[in-house]
UniProtKB/TrEMBL annotation:
<dbReference type="InterPro" id="IPR036388">
    <property type="entry name" value="WH-like_DNA-bd_sf"/>
</dbReference>
<dbReference type="GO" id="GO:0003700">
    <property type="term" value="F:DNA-binding transcription factor activity"/>
</dbReference>
<dbReference type="InterPro" id="IPR051815">
    <property type="entry name" value="Molybdate_resp_trans_reg"/>
</dbReference>
<dbReference type="InterPro" id="IPR000847">
    <property type="entry name" value="LysR_HTH_N"/>
</dbReference>
<feature type="domain" description="HTH lysR-type">
    <location>
        <begin position="21"/>
        <end position="80"/>
    </location>
</feature>
<dbReference type="Pfam" id="PF00126">
    <property type="entry name" value="HTH_1"/>
</dbReference>
<dbReference type="InterPro" id="IPR036390">
    <property type="entry name" value="WH_DNA-bd_sf"/>
</dbReference>
<protein>
    <submittedName>
        <fullName>LysR family transcriptional regulator</fullName>
    </submittedName>
</protein>
Length: 111
C-alpha cells in the first residue's frame, strides 16, 4: 500500500477536506449544484447540505444560485470560495512536498 496524505482543516465544529473542495470545484465546472452532486456521486440534497454546512461554519457564502425557469438555473462560486479552493490546494501541495521524504521511507519499509 502506498503512503497517502489527507488534509483536513477543522474549524467551528466543521471540516474542510478533499471531498468538500472537490464538490466546490465541481460546482464551478458544472455550473450547478445538481451537476456537481452527480459528478461527485451524491444527490443534489446531499451536495447542498455539505455546502450549507461549510457556509454556516465560515459565515461566508460560497455559492450563488439563480432560480431555474426558461433560461435554466445555475450556481457559481463566490470569490471567497475560489480563494478557499486555491489556498486549500496550495497548502495540500506544500504538505505533499514536505511529506515526500516520509512517504519514501514508508514505501521502502513496505517493500
Amino acid at each position: 500500500m502506498k503512503a497517502k496524505l489527507r488534509l483536513q482543516i477543522r474549524f467551528n465544529d466543521s471540516v474542510i477536506g478533499p471531498g468538500k473542495i472537490a464538490l466546490l470545484e465541481s460546482v464551478h465546472d458544472a455550473g450547478s449544484i445538481s451537476g456537481a452532486g452527480k459528478a461527485c456521486g451524491m444527490t443534489f440534497r446531499r451536495a447542498w447540505q455539505l455546502i450549507e454546512t461549510v457556509q454556516e461554519a465560515l459565515g461566508q457564502p460560497l455559492v450563488e444560485t439563480t432560480v431555474g425557469g426558461k433560461g435554466g438555473g445555475g450556481a457559481t462560486l463566490t470569490p471567497f470560495a475560489l480563494t478557499l479552493i486555491a489556498e486549500y490546494r496550495r497548502l495540500e501541495t506544500q504538505a505533499y512536498d514536505s511529506a515526500s521524504p516520509l512517504f519514501e521511507l514508508l514505501n521502502q519499509a513496505e517493500g
